[in-house]
Amino acid sequence: MKKILSILLALTMVLALAACGGSSAPAATQAAAPAATEAAAPAATEAAAPAEDSKIVVGFAQVGHESDWRTANTKNYQDVFSAENGYDLVFVDCDNDNAVQIEAVRTSIQQGVDYIILAPIQSAGWESVLQEAKDAGIPVIVADRQVDADPSMYDAFLGTDTSVEGKLAGDWLAEYLNGAEANILVIEGSVGSSAAIGRTNGFNEVAAEHPEWTILDSQSGDFTQTGGQEVMESFIKSYNGKFNVVVCQNDNEAYGAMDAMDAAGITYGVDGDVIIISYDATHDGLKYTLEGKINCNVECNPIQAAYVEQIIQQMEAGEEFATYTLVEDQAFVAPGIESAYATTMTQEILDGRAY
Ligand code: AHR
User: Fold this and answer.
1) What residues contact residue 290 under an 8 Å CB cut-off, 6+ apart?
2) Less crowded by CB within 10 Å, the N or C end of the chain?
3) Dihedral, CA atoms, 69, 71, 74, 75, nearest 10 degrees?
4) 43-73 exposure pattern, b = at least 16 Cβ within 10 A, e = fewer
5) Is 223 in the pocket of ligand 1 (CB under 6 A)?
6) Ligand 1, closest atom to CA 194?
7) Of 249, 94, 227, nearest in space to 163 by CA
8) Contact in structure between 228 and 72 (CB atoms under 8 Å)
9) Which of 63, 66, 68, 69 for a ligand 1 pocket mutation test, highest count of atoms within 8 Å of Cβ?
């Protein structure tokens, strides 16, 4: 029943897009996106659970469990797409394996789920399976990270703009250094992920404007604490005494990098020799920022499921929905740092950070 409804809705959406000029490019702009705070995120459905057979079946191909951010993101989806809220969430942890993730989406198609949520590990290689979903009439919502495929291949995107996050980190560093020299090491996220590509590009855009900055090296730590530690250990072997900035593309990598620097007797943070920039601004990342160990932490908000649920509910009702929704981020800096780009950390901010 839901499947037939999905096909009819897909046809309706195609007709609606055709009526709007036939373009399948993203119609919505940031203005149409929900406001970028947790508080402003659409409320999850609270209606009483419908009868078992009327549950909306949602296949979710999740990246994996590589970071605290991901754990918070998964929990958020499981809370919002709960049986009590009328959903049957078919969750697959793809363990950072792109081939596994493509197969997970394919399995969802074969199972005839009503909707597919895809948080893509890598941005490339999605055309074939997205075409299969389209042929089956199953709407696909790409969440968190981007795919390279043309937006006409899926129904909606929802997530953060990681190149804006990278640029924010770069702008903050330029402000903080105020013309001083920077010798920078970058611990990137997973190779081929739009989160790593965006943060790298955004930061490099600012770096290109600063001839006094040198990026000494840039290697992937795969968004994990172990990866961050291993990359930092190898950086220390090659560049000890030659670097004064470490950019970690997520909090877990920063924890690993701090462990490696502790072991090598290298000081960091507001009172140390090395400036640390991190991304995610999870609870523990902000705790280290409040303690002055991380100088600047650029947020990537994992609380995204209510936005996706809103899109699905609008599709169910045959209403217009946002095809491109940006969840905005902000940056936080350690106490004692004043910034036009970031909020200075306080205990109150930390206490309010649930993930
Ligand atoms: O795509 C979001 C990124 O993926 C987060 O920064 C990171 O922690 C996660 O693993």
Assistant:
1) 334, 335, 345, 346, 347, 349, 350
2) N
3) -110
4) ebbeeeeeeeeebbbbbbbbbbebbbbbebb
5) yes
6) 1
7) 249
8) no
9) 69
- What confidence category does residue 36 fall into, taking pLDDT thresholds of 50, 70 and 90? very low
Q: Is 142 in the pocket of ligand 1 (CB under 6 A)?
A: no
- Element holding 280 (H helix, E strand): strand 275-280
The torsion defined by the Cα of 94, 95, 97 and 103, in degrees rounded to 10, comes to -20
Q: What is the pLDDT of residue 43?
A: 56
CB-based contact 335:290 (threshold 8 Å): yes
Q: How far is the CA of 205 from the centre of ligand 1 (A)?
A: 21
What is the rounded CA–CA span in Å between residue 206 and residue 171?
Answer: 7
Expressed in angstroms and rounded, the spacing between residue 93 Cα and the centre of ligand 1 is 14
What's the pLDDT band for 6 if we cut at 50, 70, 90? very low
User: Which numbered atom of ligand 1 lies nearest the CA of 223?
Assistant: 10
For range 165-187, the mean pLDDT: 98
Q: Rounded distance, CA 259 to CA 236, Å?
A: 12
Distances (CA, A) of 218 to 1, 15, 20, 186, 286: 51, 47, 45, 4, 24
Distance 73 CA to ligand 1 centre (A): 9
Ligand 1 pocket, 280 CB below 6 A? yes
107-121 pLDDT, tens digit each: 999 999 999 999 999
pTM: 0.87
pLDDT for 14: 31
- 66 CB less than 6 Å from ligand 1? yes
Whether 279 lines ligand 1, by a CB cut-off of 6 Å, is yes
